[in-house]
User: Fold this.
Amino acid sequence: MLKNPETEQKIDALLAKMTLREKIGQLNQLGGSPVGGFGVTKEEAEGLYQAGNITKEQYDAICQGGTADANEDAVRRGEVGAFLSVQGREYTNRLQRIAVEESRLGIPLLFGLDVIHGHRTVFPSPIAEACTWNTDTFEESAHIAAREAREDGINWTFTPMLDIARDPRWGRIVESPGEDTYFATRYAVAKIKGFQGEDMSTSDRICACAKHFVAYGQGEGGRDYNTVDMSEAKLREVYLPPFEAAIEAGVGTIMPAFNDLSGIPCTSNKWLLDTYLRGEHHFEGFCISDAHAVKQVRFAGTARDEADAAVQSVSAGCDMDMGCEHYIHHLEGAVANGILSEEVINEAVRRVLRVKFALGLFEHPYVETPREPSVLSAPHRAAARDAARRSVVLLKNDGILPLSQKTNILVVGYFADRGDEMLGSWVISGQGEDSVTLLDALNSRGVDYTFVPCVGADMTVDFNLLDNALAAAEESIVLAMVGEKRDNVGEACSKGHLDLEGEQSEMLAHIHASGKSLVTLLFNGRPMTIGQEAEISNAVVETWQLGVEAGNATLDVLFGDYNPSGRLTVTFPRHVGQCPTYYNHPKIGRPYSALSKWTSKYIDDETAPLYPFGYGLSYTTYTYENLVLRVEDDILAVSVDVTNTGSVPGEETVQIYTQCRYGLRVRPVKELKGWDKVFLYAGETKTVTVRIARKTLGYYDAQCNFITEPNTYFVWAAHDSSSGVQGEIAF
Ligand code: GLC
Assistant:
């Protein structure tokens, strides 16, 4: 944990020396100065000034010094505690040297960056990597990202994102581990262990940040930043557990979400950031606001002015202000006017210093040039390729896959040769030229293919070029890489429609009409409504956004070098009208039935989803038999015999679901409560046992009492949330 007597004494001693302004300086995170410390020419500065990105003072500072970073003086005055998005150890060391050697107290800086799914070795987007259901992969990719980022001067990242995402209209679903709470708790622990390790002061670890706190994915209408209102019981049951797991795992920082929570912005929500987070769960790290979120408390209308927004936020427990400089501009006056107690400032500073000590910044503030840079090293690329092929989900296959090496194919699709697109929606340091695209991989494999560049950047299709190519081609198989552009998913990218962008669907229809076999590869960051496209495809492969090894990983699966093992962690709706849609919905009095009018359904479209949570095909098949349920003290032991009934080896993810038969509040029709992965050779059978603690089955009653009373449960051992062998037990 972060708190220990030795560090607390050091903090006490430091606090005693600090002026109020220096204390508030620690709570001030500046965006990386757009005019960086190096190499900004006068012309570039002119452009930045004309665009309003820098102030007149900053512009003048550059013009005088040419290399001056306009924020450097603020660092010298002890008015900056951290920077956001400053990159490169040369630059971070320069700013750190000013903080440590030229400011009065020499308190080192934090350098934060969104290293969401890799630094330079970019891994699959979180929604993709989640489909591996592999906690070792989650941890390893975070550790590799931490090593590369720390070498680059970064000591803090704003991830893992732990938002439960049940609505694919919300673009940030791409950053999430998916729709299930239990899954997200295990994901949280693995990620924080990967980033922070047991000691985050070492040169291969950085401080993590659990975000966005909380229920950000529940914004009305699937619209980003939108209002969220729900019962406390639902909040505690669905959205808070991943953050509780993160705190137990020792996460150093937490980021309140942009949204309000039942009328109070998370950034200034005292119940959330103080009563719940510190009072109930004893979080010892600090809260960093989201970008300019302190300013947005005023836009939400719950603060009268900037000063009020600043006082409310820091008093609620949002310790550091990201980017809008409201704390450094207003808190000193608030203390002087008796509106704010200096003790509140002291406690916030203490939390920030606790993390700086834990990172070892007082002992080792500077970053050495590594003898052997780890960036994009062969082991890192190998790990990225392994994670990527495990992330691939086979959604349909009529037997056309795996392809034989001798297959010659026609390749179409905007994404086939786009290295930047392979990196996905949330990368800052990743470079497109580092990516292996589909065409790169086809070339390196020596596959005989023809690429038809018939899809433009605007997703329009040159149907003449396509039809002529189809007519002229001897190839019998078309590989179509379709989906959504990476800039159209992620933050501020909510969509009202989930169809393939532009004319891509028509393109698939043309290919189908030509009589050729069609393998559809999906490149996307969210579930899309691809029911019709799937019908006309011989195979559909969900490749998400797979990172720098995307092309190699995709072909590893298509040619059978890797038997696909990915399983969805989000439900695919058939139509956008179903959103939000998720498997673990509460039981209701008139559940959907296709046989009766008077049940919960759509009368003008399908009610069941296209692909359920946990779904994914393999090149082999598995059977589940002999379910055995045993009570071992306060543990429910679930055992099942799993057999590989196909002709190739494969890795199966055995999922355990329960349904609580009776509750004081409505209970979900099914909930994931455990899983394990098992590798099986053709014909091999293994008994898989998953143990579930009674606490894991607990829930909240309407008064938010946590209930773990004995109950009766349906239990499933399953391949996905819509299948499995079922038993019943009193526990
Ligand atoms: C963004 C995101 C947050 C990110 C932060 C810093 O607006 O909401 O996830 O960490 O700003 O880039």
Summary: The chain has 23 helices and 25 strands. The pocket of alpha-D-glucopyranose is lined by residues 84, 114, 158, 211, 290-291, 491 (CB under 6 Å). The first strand starts at residue 28 and ends at 31. The mean pLDDT is 95.
